[in-house]
Design goal:
Layout: H1 2-17, E1 31-41, E2 45-48, E3 51-61, H2 66-73, E4 79-87, E5 90-98
Parallel strand pairs: 3-5
Antiparallel strand pairs: 1-2, 1-4, 2-3, 4-5
Length: about 100
Amino acid sequence: MKNLVWLTVLLSMISSLTCANDRPSWYPSNESLAVGQVITLTSTKIAFDDEYYILSPTVKFSTLTLEKATSSFIKKGGWVGLKLFQFNNKTYVDHIYEL
């Protein structure tokens, strides 16, 4: 539990450093953060702690490309942080942080 709190604080600090100008104007401003274990990661969605989230068209990885993440780095059970937003009643992933 202590590690989860630390990771959440770390993600909020990273989130505050992220520039909002690098997103399209249609992106909503209601963002949230999540930390947990990956169940699966595909080119269109991520299964994360029994929830499925859609990857946004401009999803970013902290140091990875989508091809590397799906093929080798982020494996089942790996810990990641997600920066999420809601649009049209769906939750999208804007950024994936490797932990």
